[in-house]
Amino acid sequence: MPLLHYDFRRFLDALDDLNPAQIEDAQTKIRDLRRKTEAISEIEARTNQGHKCPFCGGERRQKWGRTRTKVQRYRCTDCQKTYSGRTGSAIGRIHRPDLLMVVLRDMLGSSTPQSVRKLARQLGFNKYTVWRWRMLVFLIIGNSTSSASFSGIIEADETYQRESRKGSREWVRHFADPLNIPNPPRPRWEDFTTQGLKMMRGLSRWQLPILTVTDRGGSLLFQRLPNRKSATVERAMRPLVPGDAVLCSDGGNGYKNLAAARGLEHFVVGSKPGTRVASGCYHIQNVNSLHARPLRNLHQAVLRSGHQELGQLYSMAGGAADKDAASGCDQGVIKPGLLNGMLPASKRGDRADPICRL
Length: 358
Known about the structure:
Blueprint: H1 5-14, H2 20-49, E1 61-66, E2 72-76, E3 82-84, H3 97-108, H4 116-123, H5 127-145, E4 153-162, H6 170-176, H7 191-194, E5 207-215, E6 220-224, H8 230-237, E7 246-249, H9 253-262, E8 265-268, E9 277-279, E10 282-283, H10 285-292, H11 296-300, H12 310-320
Parallel strand pairs: 4-7, 7-8
Antiparallel strand pairs: 1-2, 2-3, 4-5, 5-6, 9-10
Helix pairs in contact: 2-3, 3-5, 4-5, 5-12, 8-9
């Protein structure tokens, strides 16, 4: 129940009598309440935009109290089931959406993200909870980037990222029992620096290709490719480029074959000075700029061995450099409204990845 005006004025007057320690405690409490209020506002905005019941699709509803986290609950007039703005969403089972927003801002903000352990200590949570939340964000970003559409002048190019085996125990097991445990397929990346090993020249199978596609309208897509073959690039580009688009790329055979098969107008640019702009506005400088941005998320990220999150990390680096995390992220990452736009409606029992169960 909100305070009456007279009681609220007495509360404000009592703040003058607080000592420094009490002021610090009051600031912490107000900061926590503000975070909860912001999260609830995001959830309420999502509920106000979509009035349909997540169970039967009915549009008639009535207010039905509030949840334990103070979110407005509704009851459907047709099926008599209750729901809230989080029902059927990716954060439906998360009890502290306010702290999830803190994790989001840490991942997508302008400063370098904190490590999982440091952020867990700051929030007073277990490190595995913060890790699962980051994996949940990767899952949502992957779902949002899969439906990008392009038109007009389309730029495409690939970049390469060294393979990461973060969390792998193969080196530790081999060093502990070299007679029975085989040698890992490659040295650790740090061994090239600490032990003076010679780095392999050029591209190798340890360099993972990531396809980057963007247009002048702001659409953006990063896609992890299984290999560097021309047929793979052509197959990945085919559903992305409409028939009336203009394709700008390097001289890769995959792009040439796609343009010839679809009858596209194709401008080929080079990497040497004087060849980076084909004619007028036809270039791939926007893609090159995305590749040149520092991938600060990569060094603080928790990657699984399958490298599913590499494309999402590039998307986060491309979007977070343009907009502040407090107002959302760029095209293809997370839509404006951190909790509102990032929550695709789904069936209540749908769990695409067991890592999202908290």
